[in-house]
Write a structure and sequence with these properties.
Layout (H helix, E strand, L loop, with lengths): L10 E4 L7 H5 L5 E7 L2 H4 L2 H11 L3 E8 L5 H14 L3 E6 L1 H16 L22 E5 L11 E5 L6 E5 L7 E4 L9 H21 L5 H23 L4 H14 L13 H13 L3 H15 L5 H12 L4 H14 L16 H12 L4 E2 L5 E2 H12 L1 H7 L1
Helix pairs in contact: 4-5, 6-7, 6-8, 6-10, 7-8, 9-10, 9-13, 10-12, 10-14, 11-12, 13-14
Length: about 400
């Protein structure tokens, strides 16, 4: 195992109906809150009204910012932070999915430093994330990104459409409320996209690290197996609260640092997906679903030993090819097997996608994986993902 430092500064409040504790928990962070939400869900579902009611009972003042779009834009972050600064808020509440929680983190950062958010997203960065930002309270509405238990935030440049992730210990939420009952109203496709996202979060470091960490491997395999099983259950029955409860916890654990403790590894599939959702506005989970089969096919030899291990413990096969086949079969069962062409990606944009992925990495000609992937290899992955009929003919 590699040496590691583990610290989870976030207080996690998990369980059915725990949203009711919002006011009590928020009161610990300050007197004036800046509530960050998306444009529709929080308002239309009644969650925002319920949040107001609980904050009122706790004697708190609040300002709403209901402007966050999927794949939150840098301009939106800077506008929100300017309002938060002017209002002199004490802390930030993120009420929504991964995009909203990421935006809440970014607004907490910019409100503290008064620097444009993209200064932190440049490669190399223009600004360093400070050791302390405004406190963040997250309320998660969909099991997907795990942003409620990590220090990551992913932002899209409003002009160039580059999508970049940033990380800092100060960006961990101080408090996160994970109430699976809230996720019951999430539609089928968005639910499954979230399952794909949490699965790939665990899979990437499992495949890409070369460290020997059997304990982390067993934890990762158990979480991935459960994600596939519970995802299939909720696909068949959207109101299966036990399945949604399990997925909510898997999502929270996925990037908490527990599954990959002792074996750090890069996230190449995420690196390749970011240009898709940045340029086209594709759901992040759906973009990952489109990339994953092609990525695994073209890197099968690189990950041969890891795919054998994964297949043995998830699917009772030691064949890497059959392991990939089983994952594709699962994607088909939950209606998530999709090509880039079907998602509306233009084939002539593939070179631009490669350029954006490499630029995100901060390199000139490659991105990091178990071994470096150069531009030619990236092109093969994107081109196969563009039309999976080609992959069937090759396989």
């Amino acid at each position: 195992m590699e040496s590691f430092k583990y610290k989870l500064p976030t207080k996690i409040i998990f369980g059915r109906g725990e949203f009711i504790k919002l006011g009590t928990e928020a009161k610990q962070l300050g007197k004036k809150a800046f509530i960050v939400t998306g444009k529709k869900f929080a308002k239309e579902s009644g969650l925002l009204d319920k949040a107001h009611e609980m904050l009122d009972k706790s004697g708190l003042i609040y300002i709403d910012f209901t402007k966050i779009e999927p794949n939150p834009k840098s301009e939106t972050i800077d506008i929100g932070a300017a309002i938060a600064c002017k209002q002199k808020v004490d802390f930030i509440i993120g009420l929504g999915g991964g995009s909203v929680i990421d935006a809440a983190k970014a607004i907490a950062l910019v409100t503290t430093t008064c620097k444009p958010i993209w200064d932190y997203c440049e490669r190399p960065t223009k600004e360093k994330i400070p050791h302390k930002v405004l406190p963040i309270l997250s309320v998660v509405t969909v099991a997907a990104t795990g942003s409620e238990a990590d220090g990551n935030s992913v932002i899209t440049n409003s002009k160039t459409r580059d999508k970049r992730g940033i990380y800092g210990e100060a960006l961990f939420p101080t408090i996160s409320i994970v109430d699976p009952l809230i996720t019951l109203s999430v539609p089928q496709q968005q639910t499954i996209d979230g399952v794909v996202d949490m699965f790939v979060h665990i899979l990437e470091s499992y495949l890409s690290s070369k460290a020997c960490a059997p304990v982390s491997d067993r934890i990762s395999e158990a979480l991935m197996k459960e994600a596939l099983m519970q995802g299939e259950k909720v696909f068949m029955k959207l109101n299966d609260i036990e399945a949604r409860e399990a997925l909510s916890w898997i999502s929270t654990l996925a990037l908490s640092g527990i599954p990959n403790a002792g074996r750090k590894g890069p996230f190449p599939m995420h690196r390749m997906e970011h240009p898709l959702s940045g340029m086209y506005g594709i759901s992040h989970g759906r973009g990952l679903a489109s990339i994953m089969p092609s990525y695994l096919y073209h890197t099968k030899e690189m990950h041969y030993d890891r795919l054998k291990l994964l297949g043995k413990n998830l699917f009772s096969t030691d064949s890497p090819a059959k392991t990939i086949e089983r994952l594709v079969h699962w994607l088909k069962k939950v209606d998530a097997f999709v090509s880039l062409k079907k998602l509306g990606v233009k084939r002539e944009d593939i070179d631009r996608l490669i350029e954006m992925a490499v630029r995100d990495e901060g390199e000139k000609d490659s991105i990091s994986a178990r071994e470096k992937l150069n531009r030619e290899q990236l092109k093969k992955i994107y081109e196969t993902a563009y039309n999976y009929g080609d992959l069937y003919r090759k396989a």
